[in-house]
Here is the input.
Amino acid sequence: MTAFPKSGDAVQALALSLEMLADPAALDTLRRAREIVTTPEGSLRVAAAEVWMRLKFSVPSDLGGVRAAWELADSLVRRYDALDGPEPLLLSSLAALTGRGQLAAALSQRPAVATEWQIPTALAKTAGPLLVFAALGGPLDSLRKLEHQVDTAIELNLVVSQRPPARMIWLGRPAALAFPNYPFGSLGRLVGGGNYLVDVEAAFRRGDTATVRRKFSELRVARRSVPPGDLTLDALYPEAWLYAALGDDSAAAAWLDPTLDGLLATSPEVFSDPANAGALVQAMALRSELAARMGDTGTAARWASVVSVLWADADAFLQPRVSRLRNLTRGVPGVR
Here is the structure.
């Protein structure tokens, strides 16, 4: 930055470095970058980075910071959601963060997203929306319809050798994410294809809890040396849900806490993926519900408040859950 003081990229790089050191000066530095950049694409990228930075510095206790992050995300989504606007994948992640699933899905259909994700042409209009809706847990009718469309398109349009890897990417990942809300009908046919989450979810569905517990034991050992910030919520959220479904809310909470409490250590580019953005809020909601079941009203209220802010203007299918979470904040001192 000393060499190129008027470079928005240089100032943003410094801001992200400060963020990863948990230095609050990162926000002021990023605001300086926003003043320097002049292109629509650059301005959007820096502003989106500020959304995530504000959120990571604020959760779960600084609701003012969470609201500031939501307001900026909301303004960006409203300003740039035109079909020919810049950075559709980045905007899709912000839409997922704020619970606007329909908009996030529409943005994921843009040609730039298909190119970046290397989506086969036959799946360009369906694979992105399926992943977005899977991360947000609905709408269920959309998940059901899109699962069928993606499965059929793979079967009819890809050569035989391309079908198994395509199924694991464009059906397997959404299936793993959606499982807490909607078990895919194709789940059984995805078993053994290389996605461990699909395998353990299928085992859980057929009542084989021993296999599920054995996999968790293996994961715990394998991740001993992995920093919590390197673990992404698109895996941790369904894993924690499975732990809770086994009847161990305490273990499920402990599975989520290191990463949720250490969001500042999460790499900045992780949340440019709408699947991780949606799974982040899902994980926060689950953490609140776990705390409520364990009688920890303070923790339940704090995480519920964060979700209530981020999904204040979310799609209708998410509003019943938001209402239930808001109920957890009532009567808790210092939380509203």
